[in-house]
Amino acid sequence: MAILTKEEAQAILKKALGFSKADECEITLSGNNGGNIRYARNEVSTSGAEENLSLGVESRFGKRSGVATINEFDDKSLEKVIRRSEEIARLAPESPEYVPLLGPQKYITAKEHFDTTAKIDPAYRAEAAAKSIKAAADKGLTAAGFLEHYTSFVSKMNNKGLFAYHPSTIVDFSVTMRTEDGTGSGYVTQDFSDVSKLDTGKASEIAAQKAATSRNAKALEPGKYTVILEPAASIDLLQGMFRGLDQRNAEEGRSFLSKAGGKTKLGEKLVDERITVYSDPANPEIPGAPFAGDGRPREKTTWIEKGVVKNLSNSLFWAQKTGAKSLPSGGGMIMEGGSQSIEDMIKNTKRGILVTRLWYIRSVDPQTLLYTGLTRDGTFYIENGKIMYPVKNFRFNESPIIMLNNLEALGKPQRINGNLIPPMKVRDFTFTSLSDAV
């Protein structure tokens, strides 16, 4: 029962809403089923499946609201959860940020559900792990990986006339490979809505090659280097910037977009003019839900255009308070790039470092978006257009804002963590110390 059709979800929501006595009532019904497989030392260690279905109710009396959830769907249970939410609402204090629930909305069509992914079974998971383990064993390496997949839906209805429904699928795969002597390491991660695009064997070959060629790394002096960042290396830094494209944080002085007097950098040039970032739930490579958690429609939105901040997201309350356009966060982000491959970037680099991945990233200064962290799983020295040898990992201190102002080249965008991000070549990337970890 975890995955309901639009009609099945609508029927449950209507029945539950019929029990409501509140001024306003909104109900969210969501479910998922999926599975996973984990392996280490070239052997499967765990495999599992899960199924969840839940209903959440928000009832309101004036500016007071209460929320209750349940995972039983007979009439008695539905009425019980409605009554519980109403009881909580009557006891709650008034919300200083109350806004009325939305009425009927129009949503674009976004195809995020694929039968290929929905039909993944234990046999597929076992074969996917076997392909990855073989890629490691053939090169005398040890693999540790994880694959998980979900088929999900979310549906909302309220007594103001709103109804929304969206199904989705996702498969995530990652693997780390190590050499037997422990001096070399490689990594790859891929995620897709459509599992037919995933080949764990081919993906694992990338990690295997990284591991095999990263043995016995040499130490380089820390400092500022030209770097080629694969998408897995830049995504966590960039997501920090994407999440910060928020109007309220900027106006309240808590953001890299803040200016004195409650002003913001909206409309100002922030990064290199080659940077354009937008979201689009209908994009076929990273499709997403056409509505936000509060029911507001999501449409294609440009956040940064040719380096200029064009839009900031907000809550319904903040939009009404400030008179700004109501704009929910965009979900997956798309950063436009170029046509170069990573190999092309390497050929055009006189002296630099190729970074496979960054990890253990922590915020240092929210006002400048300064982060620190470590390189990992394949870091290589480039000279005169060729990879010369692996180097020991570094600790870095860097801001994505500074990074995107030191841009030299962009490659073809690739899907990573639900976003489309190009590999990028950046000058003066700051490495502060060495790390002995591989």
Quaternary organization: single chain
Would you count the extended β strands for me? 21
* Helical residues, percent: 10-25%
First-to-last CA distance:
45 Å
Share of β-strand residues = 35-45%
Number of helices: 10
* General shape: globular
Mean pLDDT equals 97
In terms of structural class, how would the helical and strand content be classed?
alpha+beta
Computed CA radius of gyration, to the nearest angstrom: 24 Å
Strand arrangement, major sheet: 3-2-1-4-5-6
**Biggest sheet architecture:** 6 strands, antiparallel
Uncertain residue segments:
none
Model description:
- With about 450 residues, this protein is α+β, with helices and mostly antiparallel strands.
- About 20% of the residues lie in helices and about 40% in strands.
- A hairpin with a 2-residue loop joins β19 and β20 (about 420).
- The relative contact order is 0.13.
- The model has no long low-confidence stretch (mean pLDDT about 95).
